[in-house]
Write a structure and sequence with these properties.
This protein has helices spanning 8-22, 43-59, 75-78, 93-98, 172-185, 197-203, 218-230, 266-274, and strands at residues 32-34, 40-42, 65-67, 83-91, 104-111, 114-122, 127-132, 136-141, 147-148, 161-165, 188-192, 210-212, 233-237, 256-260. With 275 residues, the chain is an alpha+beta fold.
Length: 275
């Protein structure tokens, strides 16, 4: 497959290799240590991190890497970056530890704070998603030709409006938003899935909306945002401006809404999110 960006294919391959580095640690009772922010880290996270760091550096040593497992880079340094990689070597560490399959490898190329493209791979089955705004989006399985994917603007006839929500992370604001959506759009179906696969469900037309009014970090969202934007979706701050990744002091994200760019209910969602 000839992807439209020269770095897409090698980064897909790298994400799949990182998945292979993670798998030997899965469901083996691997040791868990806790980082300063109370988030868990395992040998699998670190194995994937080292493989990705080496691979990205070999691809282009001039592009710096910001990884969840090496994020202690001062803002003063990051502020000088024009292009950089934003990486979560193992997104969904809690899912991974629990033995769930819902964890991913996330790699995004960022330019001037905007996602150029992202790759999300699923280590347990070799599936991957890749996409970027203006480039398109694809879902692939190892050994098979990738297929183009796109968002759905309305649910199929007779199907409910499907909202993706996190199993582990909600908030009173998010519950209020869901209640408001239900009041205006009818009964909602909630799709719970771990890690950045939430964006991928939207990108492949299997769900309608992903509101996140609860904490995330930059490396949790950038890669899958690229996939969604390539598939005709968008990610917005609650103010309505496109979601971006400037060199802020904190690497925590603001709240966001992920949705099809041409959704008829876009303004209603923004109004509910602000209320």
């Amino acid at each position: 497959m000839n992807f439209p960006h020269p770095l897409m294919a090698p980064v897909v391959e790298l994400a799949l290799q990182a998945g292979e580095a993670i798998l030997p640690f899965w469901r083996t009772g691997t040791a868990v240590t806790t980082k300063a922010d109370d988030s868990p880290v395992t040998a699998a996270d670190l194995a994937a991190h080292h493989l990705i760091l080496a691979g990205l550096t070999a691809l282009d040593p001039s592009i710096p890497v910001l990884s969840e497992e090496d994020a202690n880079i001062p803002r003063s340094v990051r502020a000088g970056w024009q292009r950089w990689w934003l990486v979560d070597p193992l997104d969904g560490t809690k899912e991974f530890i629990s033995g769930s399959e819902e964890f991913t490898v996330n790699i995004a190329l960022i330019e001037q704070g905007r996602v150029v493209f992202g790759v999300v791979s699923m280590p347990t089955n070799g599936r991957f998603y890749v996409g970027g705004a203006g480039l398109g989006a694809w879902r692939g399985d190892r050994g098979a030709a990738p297929l183009p994917i796109q968002v759905r603007e309305v649910p199929p006839a007779g199907a409910p409006f499907t909202v993706v929500a996190s199993r582990r992370h909600s908030s009173p604001e998010q519950e209020r938003l869901l209640a408001g959506l239900s009041a205006s759009l009818g009964e909602l179906e909630l799709a719970n899935i771990g890690s950045s696969l939430k964006f991928c469900l939207l990108a492949e037309g299997a769900a309608d909306c992903y509101p996140r009014l609860a904490p995330t970090s930059q490396w949790d969202t950038a890669a899958a945002q690229g996939v969604l934007e390539g598939a005709g979706g968008e990610v917005l701050e609650l103010s309505g401006v496109p979601f971006s990744y400037p060199a802020r002091e904190s690497l925590l994200n603001e709240f966001f809404l992920a949705l099809p760019a041409k959704a008829a209910w876009r303004e209603k969602l923004l109004e509910l999110a602000r209320s």
